[in-house]
Design goal:
This protein has 445 residues and is mainly beta. Helices cover 3% and strands 42% of the residues. The protein is built from one helix and 36 strands. It has one helix spanning 27-41; strands at residues 53-56, 61-67, 70-75, 89-94, 99-105, 118-122, 125-129, 142-146, 152-156, 160-162, 168-172, 179-183, 190-195, 202-205, 211-217, 223-227, 233-237, 247-250, 253-257, 270-274, 280-284, 299-300, 306-310, 313-317, 324-328, 333-337, 340-344, 358-361, 367-370, 375-379, 387-393, 397-402, 410-415, 418-425, 428-433, 438-442. The strands form nine sheets. Strands 1-36-35-34 form a four-stranded antiparallel sheet, with no helix packed on it. The protein has a four-stranded antiparallel sheet with strand order 2-3-4-5, with no helix packed on it. Strand 24 and strand 25 form a beta hairpin. It is flat.
Length: 445
């Protein structure tokens, strides 16, 4: 079997590289060969056993998400941008045997473009957010359902974020008075509420994915850090005029990309502030600052370089000073893979589908080997996060692996009778089957 993960020619080293080193031997290629052998012959090392569970999506359903031990699926007529011909339904199936637990109706016209918008369980409440065909025509886009029987406990327009204390943060704007509130997940009643800006808050999540603190950006340039459990103000700084659409939290930094001038226009530039105290760390001029790309968000910044992508390709910055470490115009996407990087010539998630080149590289941007057969689907923005990728193997099968360790891919599972038309869903990977259905690899969370 041919493995397209080889060495890189000397002429293809990244630009702005100061010190040349000999290329490593084809260690990554050997690792992938061993990975394929483990899948085809059965892993001898218990640590290399497949952790994912393959299930076939029930017929008649066109969208899926996995929450705990439950598969959520939406009937096929719910998919699309038009009004459904019949009332769409959301069903819950127990994994892995796919025993149907309950089924509940959704508003006619609900549209799911491939996946449920969001789904999370908070105690005995299942919170499901849908993407609807016409939000202005829907009174509900988020449902709080009883886990045991699917009863609707309450529903509302908008989306929510779960706090570390188990509440639901809600940002609402009725045209006159924006508010942010913490809701009880079972009743939807506010535990507390406060005035807020029209701008969406920036959430700061802890290791379990729940919101610990959040940032409120006011039109007068004031920025506040608040506790997500109580709403208490933790830090504040004035004079930070910026465009919230070009700002984000990364590592222990708040990055404001773009400065709004007195003329109201966005003039570029990049400023970094400490996430806890909002104290300034460093800033770059509009000429020197990279532009963030909404299609491929930055990675790193947590005790390692900040990797940005934009019109100048990939740019690596020192998170302590903002100094540029290296850049390479060939790449449009970057993800972390242990102490190394995954660089792609296409947007993350599309690599491999259009034949775009993807490589494994050192942290300084030096390519080590091609990853042409792999298509990257999910993860790799933060240290230690899984990088889920897929590739076809013999016998109409799809191999799913975690590339986060760089040199030593970890097999997650194999989908049978499937083609390389795959997407990440909440809790796993979904690939199209030869018979037109979908196979799902359910991954532990």
């Amino acid at each position: 079997m041919t493995i397209d993960l080889g060495e890189i020619a000397e002429a293809e080293r990244p630009r702005q590289r100061r010190h040349a080193r000999p290329l490593r031997p084809a260690g990554p290629a050997l690792a992938v060969l061993l990975l394929l052998a483990a899948v085809l012959l059965g892993p001898s090392n218990p640590a290399q056993r497949l952790v994912g569970t393959e299930v076939v999506q029930p017929p008649g359903y066109d969208s899926a998400a996995v929450v705990g031990e439950v598969l959520l699926a939406v009937t096929a007529e719910a998919r699309g941008g038009g009004v459904a011909s019949s009332t769409p339904e959301l069903a819950a199936f127990r994994l892995p045997e796919l025993t149907r637990l309950w089924q509940t109706a959704l508003p006619a016209g609900t549209a799911i473009p491939g996946i449920v918008g969001d789904a999370v369980q908070v105690d005995d409440v299942l919170l499901v957010t849908m993407l609807v065909a016409d939000p202005e025509m829907q009174s509900c886009t988020t449902w709080a359902l009883a886990v045991e029987d699917g009863r609707t406990l309450w529903c509302d327009a908008g989306s929510y974020a779960v706090t570390s204390g188990g509440a639901l943060l809600s940002h609402t704007f009725d045209g006159t008075r924006p508010t942010i509130a913490a809701l009880d997940p079972r009743t939807g009643v506010a535990r507390w509420s406060q005035p807020a800006s029209e701008n969406l808050p920036m959430y700061v999540r802890s290791g379990d994915g729940r919101v610990a603190t959040y940032l409120v950006s006011w039109p007068d340039g004031r920025l506040e850090m608040r506790d997500a459990h109580t709403g208490e103000q933790l830090a504040s700084r004035a004079g930070l005029h910026h465009d919230p659409g070009f700002s984000l939290v990364q590592g222990d930094l708040l990055l404001l990309n773009g400065v709004v001038g007195v003329d109201g226009e966005l003039h570029g530039g990049l400023r970094a502030y400490g996430l806890v105290d909002l104290e300034p760390r460093w800033s770059l001029s509009p000429e020197a600052a990279p532009l963030m790309s909404g299609n491929s968000p930055p990675a790193g910044c947590d005790h390692r370089p900040c990797y940005f992508t934009g019109g100048s390709g990939v740019v690596a910055l020192d998170p302590r000073t903002g100094a540029q470490l290296w850049s390479d115009e060939r790449w449009r996407s970057v993800r972390l893979a242990g102490d190394r990087l995954l660089l792609s010539a296409d947007w993350f998630g599309e690599a491999g589908a259009s034949g775009a080149r993807t490589v494994l590289a050192d942290a300084d941007g030096t390519p080590i080997g091609d990853l042409e057969p792999w298509r990257l689907l999910h993860g790799g923005l933060r240290p230690g996060e899984q990088v889920v990728a897929v590739r076809p193997i013999a016998g109409n099968r799809i191999l799913v692996a975690d590339l986060a360790s760089g040199d030593d891919p970890r097999p997650l599972g194999v989908l049978t009778e499937s083609v390389n038309d795959c997407q990440w869903i909440i809790g796993g990977v979904s690939c199209r089957r030869l018979d037109g259905g979908r196979s799902l690899l359910v991954l532990p969370r």
